[in-house]
Design goal:
The complex is a heterodimer of chains A (about 120) and B (about 900).
Chain A: H1 6-27, E1 30-31, H2 32-42, H3 51-63, E2 67-73, E3 79-85, H4 87-114
Antiparallel strand pairs in A: 1-3, 2-3
Helix pairs in contact in A: 1-3, 1-4
Chain B: H1 3-20, H2 27-47, H3 52-77, H4 80-98, H5 100-129, E1 140-147, E2 150-152, E3 154-155, H6 156-165, E4 169-184, E5 187-196, H7 200-204, E6 210-211, E7 226-229, H8 231-238, E8 248-251, E9 254-261, E10 277-280, H9 281-284, H10 287-291, E11 296-304, H11 310-330, H12 334-341, E12 345-349, H13 356-389, H14 391-403, H15 408-445, H16 459-485, H17 489-494, H18 499-535, E13 545-552, H19 558-574, E14 578-584, E15 595-597, E16 599-600, E17 612-618, H20 622-626, E18 630-633, E19 647-651, H21 652-658, E20 668-671, E21 674-682, E22 697-701, E23 714-719, H22 728-738, E24 742-749, H23 750-757, H24 759-793, H25 795-803, H26 808-837, H27 853-879, H28 883-889
Helix pairs in contact in B: 2-3, 4-15, 5-13, 5-15, 5-16, 6-11, 11-12, 13-16, 13-18, 13-24, 15-16, 18-24, 18-26, 18-27, 19-22, 24-27, 25-28, 26-27
Chain lengths: ~120, ~900
C-alpha cells in the first residue's frame, strides 16, 4: 500500500496514456523499454519514466483494449513483450488528441489574455 | 462521460476482476518483462561509460524498484481490496480452525444473538411488513368508522352508501368471516367461511384457478345460490378433483352450487384468517344485518381510482359520513343523537388488508425486538471480551507484523475479517435457528386463536440477518482490533504491558452488567405482570370447568329452539361426574363485550356519562356453575321462561353504581323498550380481559333474550374432581341425543381459555425471563473470566501480600472489591438505561408501574448475586495461594 503517490500518478496518467498511444501509433509495435527510450529521446531526456509507472500504465491500456501485448523476439534475439496499438486504441487516441488540443487552446487563450 | 471511455473502463474492471481470481498474467510473466527492462538499463549504463561497478549499482538500485514495480503491476492486474479480502478470509479461517474451542463458543454466542433477532424480525416481517399477494396492493384502502382511535367495522347500509357514492374509488367490497357447519354429499364438515360482497375479486384483482369467482351479479336478490371454494379447501376436501365444479354444498339448510376455485396464492383480506369457502354476503345476511345502520359487522376495502389518493377518498368519506349519521340521528331521540353524531369515518392505506393481529401483537413484538437487540449487544460485548482475552496470544503476531511494516489500517481490517467470519457462521446458524424459533413463537402468540399466516423467511429476513451479522462483527471486533494494533511493538515483543488491556476487559464486564441489568429489569416486569394477572380476582372459579361450543348443521324453527336448549342442558347435567351445567352468550375473560344502552329506575345519567352497561344472556344455574357468589336475591331458574315476567340479575358494580348503598332488588331497568325487574345481585366478574376493570353488568335469562334467534351459546360444565377434559370424548354422542343435527365445535378446559387470553403476557414473561437468565449467565461467565485471568496474573503480588501477613480473608476481599466496583458502575448505568426503556412497556405492564422501584431492586439483587457467585471461584483461588510457590514461580 506504500509507494503510491496518487496525485502525481493522476496527473501523469492521462498524459502518459496519450504519449504511449501516440508513440505506438507512429512507431509501430515496441517493447516497454523502447517506449520509455523513445519518450526520453523526444523529450530531450526531461521525461524519465520509472518502471513502476510505465508498466502498470501499459497494463491498464491493455485491459482497456487500447493496446495488445505479445511476447516476441528483438533484433538481438531476446525475448521481449511487444505492444501494438489496436483499432479501439487509435479511435481513443484521436479522441484524446482532440481533447488535448482543445485544452491547450483554451489554456493558451487564457494565459495570453491575462498576460 | 463519453461512451467509448466508459466501455473501456468497464473492460478494465472486467479484466481486473478476472485478474483477482487468477485469470490474468502470471507473476513470472510480469517479472520477466521487468527484468528485460532492467537488463537493458544496465547495458545502457555500461555503454554510456559507467563502470561495471556503477552499472551494477544502478541495477541494484533499480532491483530495489523491481519488487515494488511487480507489486504495482499486481495491483493493476487485480482488484486489490478483493484480493486482500480473500487473503484475509483464508487467514481468518486458518486462525479460527487452530482454536476450535474459542471459535465454537463465539459462533454459538453469535448464533443465539443473531438467531433471536432474525426470529423476531421474521415475525415482524410476516405480520407488519408483508402486503397482500395482489396486484398493486399499495392502491388498496380501508374505509371504516373510527373506534377508540382504531378502524372499526361498518354496517351494510353504510357500506352500500360509501360504495355507491365515493367517486375516487374504482370499487369496494365488504367482508366478514364466520365458522359454519356445512354438508357435502351428506357429510358434515366444519369450515371457515368468508362472506364477501360481489366486487371482491374485482377489487383485489384476482383470477380463478378454476371456474369463476363471485361477481357483482351474485349480489342480486334473486341470484342463484353459489359458493367458491379456496385452493386450500379444494385440496383438503376434494383432492383437487376437477369434478368439484357443479357440486352442491348445503349451508344452513340451503343448497349452494360450487362454481369456482380461488388461486393458490389467495389470502383473505383479513390477515391471519384462512377461509375454506367464499359465500356471497347478500345470501348470508339476516334481514336485520341487511337493514340496520346500527349493526356494524363488516370490514370494507376499496381500490383507488387511477390518479386518486387516500386523501381524496378520505375527504369524500368525511362529507358523506356526516350526512349519513345526520340522517341516522334524525330518527333517534334527543338523548341518543349525540352518541351517533360523535362517530367519525376514517380512510387508511391497507396494502396488507385488515390486520387485527398487527394491532394486537405489534407492541409486544417491537419490545421483543428491543430485548433481542440487547441480547445480541450482550453477545457482541462478551465476544469482545473473549477476543481481548486472546490478545496476549495474538499480540506477538501483531507486533511482528507491525514491525515488518504492515499498515495498522490493514491489520484492523484483517482482524475485523476474523470477526466477520465468526459472524457469518453465527448468522448462518442463526438463520436456521430463526426459521425454527419464529414458527414456534408464532404458534404460541396466536395460541387458540384461529390464525394462519405465511411465516417463512424471505429476502427481507435474509437481508436483515446479513446486516445484523455485519453490524455484530463490527461491534464485537472493533475494540479488540483497535486495541491489538495500538500495541507498542517493543513491550509486546518482550511480554510486558497489560494494564490497558485489564482496564479494557473490565469496561467490557461493566458493559455486560449494565446490559444484563436492563434485561433483568424487563424480565422482572414481565414475570411480575404475569404473576399479578394470574392472581387477579376473576370473580369465578375456572378450575374444573369445561366449555363446550355446539353447532347445528341446520337452523331450527323458532319453536324448536327452547326445547333443544333445554335438552342439551339436561343431557350435559346427566353425564357422569358433572356437578352442574349452564350456558351463556358471553363467557368471562372471553375478550368479548356486549353492551347496550339502559335506563335505570331512580337514576339519571350525568351529561358526559356513558349510558351503556355490559349485557349477557344466561341459562339457569349459571352462577352456581361458575361458582360466582349470589350476594342478594336469587339467580335464574327454569321458571323464568319466555312467558313469565321479565327479570334481571346485576353484578355488584352495577348495584353500587346505580343504587349507591340501597338494595337493587325490585328496581327496574329498561333496555330497548323492555323493562326488567332486578331479582338478584351477584359478585363481579371480568368479561373482556383479566387486565380490564370490572364493568357494570346486567344479566337476563336466555329465554327472555330479545332480538333474532338463535344466538350461539357457550355451554359450561362443572366437573367434580380431576381433569375436566376427560369428559370431552363423551360429549359428541351425548349432544346428539339432544338433537341429531348437533355437533361439538370445541370442548376446552376453562383454564385453557384463561391461559390463551393472556398468551401475550405469558410469552413476554417466558421470553423476558429466559433472556434475563441468559444475560445473567453470559455476564457471569464474563466476570468469572476476567477475574480468573487477573488472579492468575497477580499470583506473585498476592503471594507477596500473604508473605507480608495478609490473611486469606484479606485476599478474598481484594478480589471481591474488583467485582463490587464493576457492579457499582454497571448497575446504575443499567438501571438508567432500563428506566428510559421500560416506559415503552407501559401498556403491557399490569399491577405495577414500569418504573416500580421494587422491580429495579429485585433486578439489582439478582445481578449482584450472580456476579458474586461468578467471583467466588477466583476469589477462593486467590485466598488459597501458597506464598512460597507463588514467589518461586517468578
Amino acid at each position: 500500500m506504500a509507494n503510491r503517490d496518487p496525485q502525481k500518478t493522476d496527473v501523469l496518467q492521462g498524459t502518459l496514456d496519450l504519449m504511449v498511444l501516440q508513440t505506438l501509433a507512429t512507431m509501430g509495435p515496441l517493447h516497454g523499454y523502447a517506449i520509455a527510450a523513445r519518450l526520453e529521446q523526444v523529450s530531450s531526456r526531461s521525461l524519465q519514466l520509472n518502471m513502476g509507472t510505465l508498466y502498470p500504465g501499459l497494463m491498464r491500456l491493455e485491459q482497456r483494449g487500447f493496446v495488445r501485448g505479445k511476447w516476441g523476439m528483438t533484433e538481438n534475439n531476446r525475448r521481449a513483450r511487444f505492444y501494438e496499438i489496436t483499432a479501439t486504441g487509435r479511435r481513443q487516441l484521436s479522441a484524446e488528441r482532440a481533447e488535448w488540443d482543445r485544452t491547450v487552446s483554451i489554456m493558451n487563450a487564457l494565459l495570453n489574455e491575462t498576460r | 462521460m463519453n461512451p467509448m471511455r466508459s466501455i473501456a473502463t468497464l473492460r478494465e474492471w472486467a479484466h481486473r476482476l478476472a485478474g483477482t481470481i487468477g485469470r490474468g498474467r502470471t507473476d513470472r510473466d510480469l517479472e520477466e518483462e521487468l527484468r528485460f527492462h532492467l537488463d537493458l538499463t544496465a547495458e545502457e549504463a555500461l555503454r554510456g561509460g559507467t563502470s561495471a561497478e556503477g552499472a551494477g549499482r544502478a541495477a541494484t538500485l533499480e532491483a530495489g524498484g523491481l519488487s515494488q514495480s511487480v507489486e504495482a503491476l499486481r495491483d493493476q492486474r487485480g482488484l486489490r481490496w478483493i484480493a486482500d479480502f480473500v487473503q484475509d478470509l483464508r487467514y481468518a479461517a486458518r486462525t479460527l480452525r487452530r482454536s476450535p474451542g474459542f471459535s465454537a463458543v463465539a459462533v454459538l454466542l453469535l448464533a443465539l444473538g443473531i438467531g433471536a433477532n432474525a426470529a423476531i424480525f421474521t415475525l415482524i416481517n410476516a405480520i407488519m411488513l408483508r402486503t397482500l399477494p395482489v396486484p398493486e396492493p399499495g392502491r388498496l384502502v380501508q374505509i371504516a368508522r373510527l373506534l377508540d382511535g382504531r378502524p372499526g367495522v361498518v354496517s351494510y347500509p353504510l357500506f352500500r352508501y360509501f360504495h355507491d357514492n365515493i367517486r375516487s374509488i374504482a370499487s369496494a367490497f365488504a367482508q366478514v368471516t364466520s365458522n359454519l357447519l356445512v354438508a357435502i354429499d351428506g357429510d358434515e364438515d366444519f369450515v371457515t367461511a368468508e362472506y364477501v360482497s360481489g366486487s371482491h375479486a374485482l377489487v383485489l384483482g384476482i383470477a380463478p384457478a378454476a371456474g369463476r369467482l363471485l361477481s357483482p351479479s351474485d349480489d342480486e336478490p334473486n341470484a342463484t345460490a353459489v359458493v367458491v371454494i379456496t385452493d386450500r379447501y379444494w385440496s383438503r376436501r376434494f383432492g383437487r378433483s376437477a369434478a368439484v365444479l357443479g357440486k352442491m354444498m348445503t349451508v344452513r339448510d340451503r343448497p349452494f352450487t360450487i362454481v369456482g376455485v380461488t388461486p393458490a396464492a389467495y389470502q383473505s383480506a383479513r390477515a391471519g384468517s384462512a377461509p375454506d369457502i367464499l359465500l356471497p354476503l347478500s345470501a348470508m345476511m339476516t334481514p336485520q344485518q341487511r337493514q340496520s345502520s346500527d349493526f356494524n359487522f363488516l370490514n370494507m376495502l376499496a381500490r383507488l381510482k387511477p390518479g386518486a389518493t387516500v386523501d381524496d377518498v378520505n375527504a369524500e368519506a368525511q362529507v358523506l359520513f356526516a350526512s349519513f349519521v345526520q340522517a341516522q340521528a334524525n330518527a333517534l331521540s334527543e338523548k341518543e343523537r349525540a352518541a351517533v353524531l360523535r362517530q367519525r369515518a376514517v380512510v387508511l392505506p391497507a396494502p396488507d388488508g385488515f390486520n387485527p393481529i398487527r394491532d394486537t401483537i405489534a407492541m409486544p413484538l417491537l419490545l421483543l425486538m428491543g430485548i433481542v437487540g440487547l441480547i445480541l449487544l450482550l453477545a457482541c460485548v462478551n465476544l469482545s471480551g473473549l477476543l481481548l482475552a486472546r490478545a496476549p496470544a495474538r499480540s506477538r503476531e501483531v507486533a511482528i507484523r507491525l514491525a515488518i511494516g504492515a499498515g495498522r489500517g490493514r491489520l484492523v481490517r484483517q482482524l475485523l475479517t476474523e470477526s466477520l467470519v465468526l459472524a457469518s457462521a453465527g448468522g448462518g446458524a442463526g438463520l436456521g435457528l430463526a426459521a425454527w424459533f419464529s414458527g414456534k413463537l408464532f404458534s404460541v402468540f396466536v395460541d387458540g386463536r384461529d390464525v394462519v399466516l405465511p411465516i417463512g423467511p424471505d429476502w427481507r429476513v435474509v437481508a436483515f440477518t446479513l446486516a445484523v451479522s455485519v453490524a455484530a462483527s463490527c461491534t464485537a471486533g472493533l475494540a479488540p482490533a483497535l486495541h491489538a494494533v495500538r500495541t507498542n511493538v517493543n513491550p509486546a515483543l518482550t511480554g510486558t504491558g497489560t494494564a490497558r488491556r485489564r482496564r479494557l476487559s473490565e469496561s467490557v464486564v461493566v458493559a455486560q452488567i449494565a446490559v444484563s441489568m436492563v434485561l433483568l429489569v424487563s424480565a422482572a416486569l414481565f414475570v411480575g405482570t404475569l404473576l399479578k394477572l394470574q392472581a387477579a380476582d376473576r370473580g369465578f372459579t375456572s378450575d374444573g370447568l369445561l366449555v363446550v361450543g355446539l353447532r347445528s348443521s341446520r337452523p331450527y324453527p323458532p319453536a324448536r329452539i327452547a326445547p333443544v336448549r333445554d335438552a342439551i342442558l339436561g343431557t350435559l347435567r346427566s353425564l357422569p361426574g358433572v356437578q352442574s351445567a349452564s350456558a351463556a352468550q358471553l363467557l368471562p375473560v372471553s375478550g368479548l363485550l356486549w353492551d347496550r344502552r339502559v335506563a335505570v329506575e331512580g337514576y339519571s345519567f350525568g351529561p358526559g356519562e356513558s349510558e351503556t352497561v355490559g349485557f349477557n344472556a344466561i341459562a339457569p344455574g349459571y352462577f352456581a356453575t361458575l361458582a360466582t357468589p349470589v350476594v342478594e336475591g336469587r339467580e335464574f331458574t327454569d321458571r323464568d321462561t319466555g312467558a313469565s315476567p321479565r327479570v334481571a340479575v346485576v353484578n355488584e358494580s352495577f348495584a353500587r353504581h346505580f343504587f349507591s348503598g340501597g338494595s337493587a332488588l325490585g328496581k327496574r331497568v329498561t333496555s330497548v323498550d323492555v323493562t326488567y325487574e332486578i331479582v338478584g345481585v351477584v359478585g363481579d366478574a371480568k368479561y373482556q380481559r383479566l387486565r380490564d376493570s370490572v364493568i357494570e353488568t346486567l344479566y337476563i335469562p336466555w329465554t327472555q333474550r330479545p332480538g333474532e334467534q338463535p344466538t350461539i351459546f357457550n355451554y359450561i360444565v362443572r366437573v367434580t374432581g380431576g381433569d375436566p377434559m376427560r369428559l370431552a370424548p363423551l360429549l359428541d354422542r351425548a349432544v346428539r341425543n339432544a338433537d341429531s343435527g348437533l355437533h361439538v365445535r370445541a370442548a376446552i378446559a376453562y383454564d385453557t381459555i384463561i391461559d390463551r387470553s393472556i398468551s401475550t403476557e405469558r410469552i413476554m414473561a417466558a421470553l423476558g425471563g429466559m433472556f434475563g437468565a441468559l444475560a445473567l449467565l453470559v455476564a457471569g461467565v464474563g466476570i468469572f473470566g476476567v477475574l480468573a485471568f487477573q488472579v492468575a496474573r497477580r499470583t506473585h503480588e498476592l503471594g507477596v501480600r500473604m508473605a507480608l501477613g495478609a490473611t486469606r480473608t484479606n485476599l478474598m476481599q481484594c478480589v471481591l472489591r474488583d467485582v463490587l466496583w464493576m457492579l457499582g458502575l454497571g448497575l446504575p448505568l443499567g438501571a438508567l438505561g432500563a428506566f428510559g426503556a421500560t416506559g415503552l412497556a407501559g401498556t403491557l405492564v399490569f399491577g405495577m408501574t414500569a418504573h416500580d422501584p421494587r422491580v429495579f431492586i429485585v433486578a439489582a439483587l439478582i445481578m449482584s448475586a450472580g456476579a458474586l457467585v461468578a467471583a467466588w471461584v477466583p476469589a477462593r483461588r486467590a485466598s488459597r495461594i501458597d506464598p512460597i510457590a507463588a514467589l518461586r514461580h517468578e
